[in-house]
Design brief:
Elements (H helix, E strand, L loop, with lengths): L1 H9 L4 E6 L5 H14 L6 E4 L8 H13 L3 E7 L5 H13 L4 E5 L20 H12 L4 E6 L10 H13 L4 E6 L3 H13 L6 E5 L5 H11 L5 H8 L5 H21 L4 E5 L5 H12 L6
The structure holds flavin-adenine dinucleotide.
């Protein structure tokens, strides 16, 4: 499977992946799975499932991931270094493989809410590159390994040069692919890819796109991720007033134009931050296929 997945990510046909987060209640889990089942026949290649920051959703990542595997998705399980010893991470990696996941997105993770700066577990790892190496040492190439990319630079990085240096180091530790943080200006992605290629990184770099639902939602996402909300998009959303259907229409138009531009510029696919809902992905895939940006 991982060899297939790596081949798939490098194939000329663009890869489409969607991101789920593990729900906190049985009702929300049923809803998420119903949405995932609706999306499954639409030519989505991969589903990724996030890993909870504060420990709340950690077992839930494995549980929800297993359900997505059962629906027939190639599943990328996210894993972070936060609060884990090396031995715990090794055990989790084994569990991901036993659950039938196709890949692992190896992340450092963010400090728990309220904490300043990332403090590694005393017997744990300090950077995503070390987790990439741990997964490789544990599983060889049984699972594909991905890492995070930041088109606008990682918020903690002292300079773009440092950011690029550690990014290239992390990929060289054994990553097969990169999925990016959400961004709204394609120039940031294209600049980042050019810099990565110049630094010798040749792994596929899949752009992460948030189809915006509402102004409130996108402001929250930008506050959390430190992504820049372009003034033009913000004004268009503000002009909708309280009309959430109109805000969603603006978000879909922006995402459609962004993805079509990225694919035309050679992006290997798209990763959609769908926030456990199928409607935006369904609409965007339909539009992108209708305009020939994605194959039918
Ligand atoms: C696609 C995607 C999915 C995500 N999914 C999740 C999730 O499921 N759960 C979650 O909690 N978080 C998730 N995150 C958030 C992520 O954990 C944070 O952005 C975190 O701050 C950085 O993680 P990283 O893996 O990029 O870390 P790293 O690659 O370790 O980088 C973190 C910082 O350290 C620097 N650095 C790296 N190596 C070194 C070194 N050796 N020496 C000095 N500096 C170094 C980097 O330049 C960067 O500034 C996701 C992010 C993305 C983009």
């Amino acid at each position: 499977m991982p060899a297939d997945l790596v081949q798939r990510l490098r194939a000329p046909r663009p890869t489409v992946s969607v991101e789920f987060f593990p729900p906190k209640t049985p009702e929300a889990t049923s809803l998420m799975l119903a949405e995932a089942a609706q999306l499954r026949p639409l030519g989505i290649d991969l589903a990724s499932i996030t890993y909870g920051a504060g420990g709340s959703t950690r077992a839930a990542t494995l549980d929800a991931g297993r359900e997505l595997v059962a629906l027939g998705y190639g599943v990328i399980g996210h894993l972070t270094c936060v609060g884990h010893s090396r031995a715990e991470l090794e055990a989790l990696v084994d569990q991901y493989a036993a659950a039938g996941f196709s890949g692992i997105l190896a992340l450092r993770g963010d400090p728990p809410r309220g904490a300043t700066g990332f403090t590694p577990h005393p017997e744990g790892l300090s950077h995503a590159s070390e987790l990439v190496a741990l997964v490789r040492a544990r599983l060889g190439s049984r699972l594909a390994v991905g890492v995070a990319g930041f088109p606008e630079g990682h918020p903690d990085s002292p300079s773009p040069e440092e950011d690029l240096r550690w990014f290239a180091h992390k990929v060289r530790a054994g990553a097969d692919f990169v999925t990016t943080q959400l961004f709204f200006d394609n120039a940031d992605y294209l600049r980042g890819v050019a810099a990565a290629r110049a630094a010798g990184v040749d792994a596929p770099i899949i752009p992460g796109i948030l189809p915006v639902r509402t102004l409130r939602q996108v402001r929250n996402f930008c506050a959390l991720s430190k992504a820049r909300l372009p003034r033009e998009l913000e004004s268009r959303l503000e002009a909708c007033g309280e009309d959430e259907a109109a805000q969603l229409a603006v978000g879909l138009d922006w995402a459609e134009a962004q993805i079509a531009g990225l694919l035309a510029a050679g992006a290997p696919g798209v990763h959609l931050y769908i926030v456990n809902r199928s409607d935006t992905a369904r609409e965007l895939l339909g539009r992108l296929r209708a305009r020939g940006a994605l194959p039918a």
